[in-house]
Amino acid sequence: MMIKVVKFGGSSLASAEQFKKVGNIIRAEESRKFVVPSAPGKRFSDDTKVTDMLYKCYAEASEGKNFDKSLKAIKERYNEIIKGLGLKLSLDEQFETIKKQFSVLAGEDYAASRGEYLNGIVMAEYLGYEFVDAATVICFDANGEFDSEKTNKVMSERLSKVESAVIPGFYGAMPNGKVKTFSRGGSDVTGSIVARAIKANVYENWTDVSGFLAADPRIVKNPKPITVITYKELRELSYMGASVLHESAIFPVRKEGIPINIRNTNAPDDKGTMIVETTCHTPEYTITGIAGKKGFVSISIDKDMMNSEIGFGRKVLQVFEDNGISFEHMPSGIDTMTVFVHQDEFVEKEQKVLAELHRAVHPDSIELESDLSLVAVVGRGMRNNSGIAGNIFSALAKAKVNVKMIDQGSSELNIIIGVRNKYFEDAIKTIYSVFVPED
Ligand code: ASP
């Protein structure tokens, strides 16, 4: 039998009405046996997520302030859901415990995790599924690092004993029992871990969009949805800012070759995006997607005969490493090399880095250019397809977008283009229109 892990994000569980949609989705397919909920998210655009309410409430507790009012507001969010679903469930006992734990300052992670914990209890009651506390099956080590192999063992053993379960997202526990969370948005990671542990056929991740779009809709009007994307393409796009899924969520399922299906709770008939290891499904357009980020600086280092100086690149990069600055790209010429770094990581240390570069490699000159953007054009369909770079650059030239840097990885999966921030939107629009015809 087919088994699916279904994870629902905060906006899918923000109110009783949303819960009902989720209930319908789960009941529509027998395979949906393992459910991972987030905490209730925003009901309307300037609403506050329960997780943020919890952080605030805990901050009050740690400052020694009275936090009764804040905790009450959180309890009301749950009671509204419980009432709207017509459940006979009281969370009084849980809230008593939470209050006590906040008073003894049980930790910020503990506080934040209660959003998922309580929502898991409500969800389990609503579905008639067993509640499995994530603190008992998601293991972090004593340093607070996620222990994937131990978790996989503990969780698969535990879940083999149940037919259907709700496992709250976002947190686990360290060997001493202290609750630890993943970074924000971490319920996506929990869903992936559960899918791996039970060897699910599919990991469905339900959110409020129908999957990934080929470009940012704030820049390109009605961008096309991406139906199938590989893990690798997704990494490239998410790294460049396309954010639908937590970036660590692909690793657990990837180990088992389980596909992730991004779906929309508010449009359950949409097929969404399938994220797969590899596919022979040819993309509809040569590119799969375009994404980009602003805020880079390029540091161009020139020196005659650099080319024949062994160790030059290493010495340059060592300076960045010593200053705790990670580099993004490093295009080079014969007697020149350029290092792209994040502007906000670099600004403070700028003069120190320049002085150290002078000392390390005695360049003829160093030039800086700030306010640059990087645009990534990603697509497995670009491989073995000629003329793509040509098309991109002639279109950019026509649109009068000045290209500062080009970097094509040898995997031919992406082309990265550096432009000034002011050309960022134009560059994305232009490239998109080269590949995706208007309908
Ligand atoms: N509730 C947590 C957050 O707001 C985790 C999640 O939703 O995935 O970040």
Oligomer: single chain
SSE topology string: EHEHHHHEHEEEHEEHHEEEHEEHHEHEEH
Roughly how many Å apart are the termini? 41 Å
Name the helicity range. 25-40%
Radius of gyration: 25 Å
Physical arrangement of strands within the biggest beta sheet: 3-4-2-1-7-9-10-8
Described by strand count, sense and barrel closure, the largest sheet is: 8 strands, mixed
Mean pLDDT, nearest integer?
94
Q: Strand share of the residues?
A: 15-25%
- Helix-and-strand structural type: alpha/beta
In words, what does this structure look like?
This protein is of the alpha/beta class. It contains 14 helices and 16 strands. The strands form 3 sheets. It has an 8-stranded mixed sheet, sandwiched between helices. A 6-stranded antiparallel sheet has the order 12-13-11-14-16-15. α2 packs antiparallel against α3 (68-84), α6 (148-159) crosses α7 (187-197) and α13 (388-398) crosses α14 (424-435). The two termini are 41 Å apart. Aspartic acid is lined by residues 10, 38-39, 49, 51, 115, 169-170, 184-188. The site of aspartic acid (ASP) has 13 residues, from α7.
Features:
439 residues, eight-stranded mixed β-sheet, globular, six-stranded antiparallel β-sheet, 21% strand
Give a nutshell description of this structure:
With 439 residues, this protein is α/β, with parallel strands linked by helices.
Compile the SSE list and pairings.
Layout: E1 4-8, H1 16-28, E2 32-37, H2 50-62, H3 68-84, H4 92-103, H5 108-127, E3 130-131, H6 148-159, E4 165-166, E5 171-173, E6 179-181, H7 187-197, E7 202-207, E8 228-230, H8 231-239, H9 250-256, E9 260-264, E10 273-276, E11 289-302, H10 312-322, E12 327-329, E13 336-342, H11 343-346, H12 350-361, E14 365-378, H13 388-398, E15 403-408, E16 414-420, H14 424-435
Parallel strand pairs: 1-2, 1-7, 2-4, 3-4, 7-9, 8-10
Antiparallel strand pairs: 5-6, 9-10, 11-13, 11-14, 12-13, 14-16, 15-16
Helix pairs in contact: 2-3, 2-5, 6-7, 7-9, 10-12, 13-14
The chain binds aspartic acid.
Aspartic acid binds at residues 10, 38-39, 49, 51, 115, 169-170, 184-188.
